[in-house]
Each structure stands twice: as C-alpha cells, then as structure tokens.
Amino acid sequence: MAGLDYTSRSVPISDQILNGGLNSTAGALGLQNNEASDIQNIDFNKFGSILKRNGYTALNTATVNSAADINGLFWFEYVNTGTLTRKAVTVAGDKCFRMDGLDGTWDDITSSISITTGFHVDSATFQNRLHMTNGNDVPFNWDGANNTGLAASEIPSGLTTAKFVELYNNHLFLGNVTVSGTVHNSRIYWSNIKDAKTWTATDFIDIAQNDGQEIQGLKVLGDRLVVYKDRSIYNVFFTGDVDIPFILPSGGKSNSQVGCAAPFSIQNVDNGQVFLSQDGFYFYDGFNSFKLSDRITTTLDGMDDTKYPKAVSLVQKNKNRYLCALTTSGSSENDKVVVWDYFNNAWSIYDGLDPSSMATFYVSGTEERPYWGDYSGFVYRSDVGTSDNPLNVSTLIDGFYWTNWKHYDDLVDKKGVAHLVLYHQISSTTLTLAYSYDFDTSAQYSQAFSIGTSSDLYGSASYDEATYAQTGGDIKRRDLPLGRGRVVRFKFANNILDEAFQIDGFGTMAHVETVE
User: Fold this and answer.
1) Element (H, E) at 501
2) What single-letter DSSP state applies at residue 245?
3) Cα–Cα distance between 139 and 150 in angstroms, integer?
4) pLDDT given at position 460
5) CA-to-CA distance for 109 and 89, rounded, in angstroms?
C-alpha cells in the first residue's frame, strides 16, 4: 500500500446493502457505504436494494374548475341509510367536488357556500359529516346524504373563521379562530359530546395566550390531543368530567424544544407524529421531539422555508413511507417531495410531482392508496405504473442513485477500478452506469447497457453473466476502462419512459496504482 515501491494486488469489495438513503450533509468522506451522495426518484426495500420509484396516473382526465389549485383532498367514509359509503372529496379553487366510486368524474357539491381560493382546507369526519375549514371562510361541511351540497357548519357564537378542525374523544375541535372580529390564534373550542351541532360559548381554552406564537395544527396521538404552536407543543387530555372535560396538566407544555412550521406536514407515524419544524423534520412521541433530518439538512437548505406553511404530506403505511411536498428556492409552488422511509430510516427525494394537496384513500376500507392534487385541477393516484402522467400526459421518470465516495480504506494512493459486477433484477430496461474520481461532480465516464433477460439458465451459466436467482435476478460485469484516483463513486440511472430497475448490490475490483 502507501510507501511501497510496487503495485499491490487487486482487492475485491462488496456492496450489498444500499438502503441507507441520502446523506447530503456530511463531508464527502463521512458517508456510510450504504448511503447515497445524491439521489432522485429512488425507493428502498427492506433487504438492501434500491429501486426506481413507481409513477402516477391521472384520476380525472379533464381539469377541475378551470384548472384551479387543488386546495384540499379527502377520503370521506360515512354511513348513508345503513350502508357504509366512501367517496373522494376535493376543494378546487372556489368549489368543492365529490367523486363516486373513483370513476374519474368530479361532481360539484359547493351549493351556496362561499369558498375563497388560495387557502388550504383542513378536515375531520364526525357524525357522518365531513367538516372543513380553511382559516378564511366560515366553516362548512358535507353530510353525503343523497349527494346534496355543502352546508354551513354550526359553530360557536360569533366565530367566523378557524384554521384547524379535529375530532377528539367524541368532541369536534376548532383551533386558531376569529371571534367577533378578534383573532384568537391560541384558542381551541370544542363542541358538546357526540354533538357537532351544539357549542357552548364558554367551552374553550386559550393555550399559552400572548406567548408570541399561534396554533399551527391539531392532531390526536393516542390518549391526547396534540396542539402544535410555532415553537412549542402542548398536550390536551380528556377528564371525563362534565363540567371540565379537557385540561392541560401543569399548563400542558411538552418537553419539546421546537414547534411546527408546516401545519399540513403533521402525520401519525408508528407510535408518534412526524412534523416539519423551521430547522427540519422531527418525531414527537407525546413527550419529546427528536430530530430526524440531520442527514438532509443541506437539501432542506435548498427549500424556501417561507413556503413551509404550504407544505402537504401523507403516510403510506404499507410501504413505510412519510412523504412531504416542499417548494425549492426560486419556485412558487411545491415541486419536490421529501420521502422518509421509516423502516430503513432513509431519506429520498422525488422529482416530477407538484402536490398542492395529499391524502391516503382506503379503497373498500382496506386497500391503501396514495393520492395527490396539483395546481392545475388534476388529482393523481401515486405509486402505480412506470411513468408519470402530469396533466394526463405520459412522461418519463428520471431516477438516479450516486453512491458514497469510496476510498477502500486507503486515502493515500491513487487507485483504478478495473470492473464492476452488478447484481440486479431482470427488466426490459437500459441502465446507465457512470463513475467519477476525486470529487468530480459530473460523470467522467458512463455506459448504457440492457438489464433484460439473460440467455443463461440458473445453475448452468457462463462466466461473468448469469442468472443468480430463480426469482429474476441476473449478474452483469462491466469493465471500467478510464481514470483513477484516490476516491471514486458510482451512479446507476435510468430516464427512459416506462422503464424501471432494481439493484440488489454490486462488487468492484480496486487496484492500487503506486509508482515505482
């Protein structure tokens, strides 16, 4: 190695765990072997593989409400004449629509309700009604019965607006309200028990009033109603007492040292809640908050934090994913989706989506599907197919994964990598393999090759190109003829329409190139 006057033997190195996710924050030599130095449109599985993400399809093939922004998207489950019924509901611009059976047709249910465009809509289902509020208009609701239109909600006397609505212990809550022309941005109201039509004017709590913060979200976590403010988090508990049904023990303030900057980033994940604060994503367990996003701090620095209030999110439980759409600096709309795979504790970035609203639909009550709406009057089903379909136009997915910078335990000598052996799943895909030495940000050399069906059979394969598993795995050796350096990284990419890939691991042959 270093200090010797002869060339050492080649050293085979294996990389079979690739699901560590993006690390854009650490120094170039600080990444683990399973982490990516750059990534786009990549998912991970539980066994170490990386996959190009699935695409999305348009739910409606024509724009809604003259291509208005989708400011709210909900899955409404209710009982109608003894039958459990499910419908998609969306607020597009100044109108509200329902969809029957996900048939692709949005039916206007706005009726005489006034909805101001440009305000994101919060919702909660209670007593067979979908309650909605947007912080600007009087709260409204839809009961779904006979597909009639929206109605004005019953609300506390004098209340004209509320930013948030939530169901907790058979009471409906409204938070961050305006009453008789006065803004009470730390106040929560609750309805009578099991009765969203009756409110008592004195049934409210001002949470840390005049602390310079306002309520940024309401979300139930287990036995408590979590109230998020700008720089703090409070817990409200149910007492069961008729006269004092809700309390904040010792003021209710949790140990969290941060609050929420993005109301619609708050999601229940496993046994806690994930939310976006001003300096990154956190996990709240009911007592404390723990930062999740240290490895993507540099990525988040490229987002416009003044637009965090427009962030929207969903949880895809069957894939262990939390997704949050953000706006990059210089853009006016959400144009990146930050993805946290909470099984692998790995981050990824989706490009090619512009969600203004997101929601999880439970089709037939059990089939979980992610949906999102855009700024052009379209709603999409996500995680399906091998292409994107913005505005109902088939579009390629540009997916790539850059490994960490590999030094092979030697930061002194220059090395050449003679070849790479790739383990992958067979698919009708042209994969691009690229690499670069010594922190060059561009690919110094790249080659494209097919990862389609091999002519070799399992158990009777020829040297260096063989099927390695009966489930569709294959092996490819690629020679790397150019360059050498002290560190090297590799890129796997594909940006061809209707093509996908899964990489299960790779091996490289590193060779120290000392000069005699």
Assistant:
1) none
2) -
3) 10
4) 36
5) 9
- For the four alpha carbons of 145, 87, 221 and 284, in that order, the dihedral sign comes to negative
Q: Which position has the token pair 């990598």?
A: 417
The CA distance from 32 to 55, in Å, is 29
Identify the residue whose tokens are 């000598």.
Answer: 413
d(CA 312, CA 305): 13
**Which residue spans within 278-425 are E strands per DSSP?**
280-284, 289-291, 312-316, 321-326, 336-341, 346-351, 357-363, 367-373, 379-382, 399-403, 415-425
Residue 426 corresponds to which amino acid?
I
- Angstrom distance (rounded) from CA 152 to CA 138: 7
* Strands 35-40 vs 21-22: parallel, antiparallel or unpaired: parallel
Which tens digit of pLDDT belongs to each residue from 51-77?
999 999 999 999 999 999 999 999 999
Cα 174 from Cα 448, distance rounded (Å): 56
From 145, 143, 174, select the one nearest 161 (Cα to Cα): 174
Class of domain 11-53+400-512: mainly beta
Distance CA 419, CA 429 (A): 21
Structure tokens at 113: 């309700």
Name the pTM for this structure: 0.94
- Secondary structure of 262-314 in the HEC alphabet? CHHHCEEECCEEEEEECCEEEEECCCCEEECCHHHHHHHHCECHHHHHHCEEE
- Distance in angstroms (rounded) separating the CA atoms of residues 263 and 310: 8
Domain ranges, ordered by start, for the chain: 11-53+400-512
User: In whole angstroms, what is the distance from residue 386 CA to residue 393 CA?
Assistant: 13
Does the pLDDT at position 4 exceed 70? no
CA distance 363 to 318: 14
Show the CA angle centred on residue 372, arms to residues 344 and 77, nearest 5°: 95
Q: How many helices (H) and strands (E) does the chain have?
A: 1, 40
DSSP conformational letter for 318: G
**Burial of 199 from C-beta contacts in 10 A (0-12 / 13-18 / 19+):** buried
> What does the block give as tokens for 344?
């692998």
CA angle 103, 105, 110 (to 5 degrees): 130
Q: Return all residues near 221 (Cβ < 8 A) that are at least 6 apart.
A: 268, 272, 273, 284, 286
In order of 9, 69, 157, the CA distances from 299 in angstroms are 39, 26, 46
Q: How far is Cα 95 from Cα 80, in angstroms, rounded to an integer?
A: 23
- Written as six digits, the tokens of 355 are 């969600």
Interval 441-487: pLDDT, tens: 999 999 999 999 754 433 334 445 566 665 689 999 999 988 999 99
Q: pLDDT tens-digit profile of 448-457?
A: 999 997 544 3
Cβ neighbours around 135 below 10 Å, total: 20
CA-nearest of 463, 460, 492 to 475 is: 463
Residue 175 identity:
G
